[in-house]
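Tokens help. Consider this.
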Amino acid sequence: MADASGAPGAAVPTMNRVEMRAQGMLMQFLGLDSEAHRKKVHGALLQTYVAMVKALRPEVVLEIGAHEARFSVSVRRAAKEEDLKVVAFEANPDVWNTHQARLAKEGVEYRNLAVADRAGTLRFRVPLVRGQEGRTTGSLLEFSARMATEFVEHEVEAVRLDDQGFARAALWIDVEGATREVLAGAETTLGTCVAAFVEVEEDERWPGQMVADAVLDHFESRGFAALLRDVQRAWQYNVLFVRKDLLFDHRITPFRRRYLAQLRHMAGLPGEVEQVHPAEARKARRLAERKASRVAQART
């Protein structure tokens, strides 16, 4: 798809790491982190990103750690007859076998490959849940004891994104802690990437993983800004990044406003979520600043 340049407008507000945590705490205060709301909040952010991707018109959409490739299918259907290449990567061979025929009919190029910092054969670990493989939580990393005590290993083929010739991509990364490995092989790809949706964890659930602060720093240093987030667990959420040079693009502004309106509706409150309880927002920000300070001190 060819690029469709947008007219300049006002810059869209973005978030630093403290504001990211403050927004998460505000979601908790509003009850949006409850089991009943988490899927709705995640679904709203997913659809926001799908609409944004369609508006930004990338040359290719890449879903890393795809499982059933829900995002890829949503983008492919939203694009309809438009010539948009959609590629989904899934390392788990059993999961790939389950979904590959259906995804071929959807027009998604579904590859049974891991994405990492090096090409070749790697070990892919899948935790056991009641004696059965957990089909949504496999990782290239070792599992900590609090994540899994029993698992099986598969040998899988891995590729680097930079070896695939992708340009001007929109990314989705959900790789159970192995974000550093994906990004280490994607420097050139990130250089032309327009937006990214990345699952992050506040602390190490997989030993040695890149935690949320490091992911935010990585994207910021490469010309991206954190725009929105959701809440999955107290320690895990997804962040939507967009290139800083697109923040003045009039195509971006409506998506942030629409997502916040959806959160407002879920919480049963008037006005945008970030404007409903300013005192509580300030309190959440102060708590986030203290947490960030404690984390920084612990790492020194």
Observations:
- DSSP finds ten helices and eleven strands in the chain.
- The domain at 17-299 is CATH 3.40.50.150 (Rossmann fold).
- Residues 1-5 have pLDDT under 50 and may be disordered.
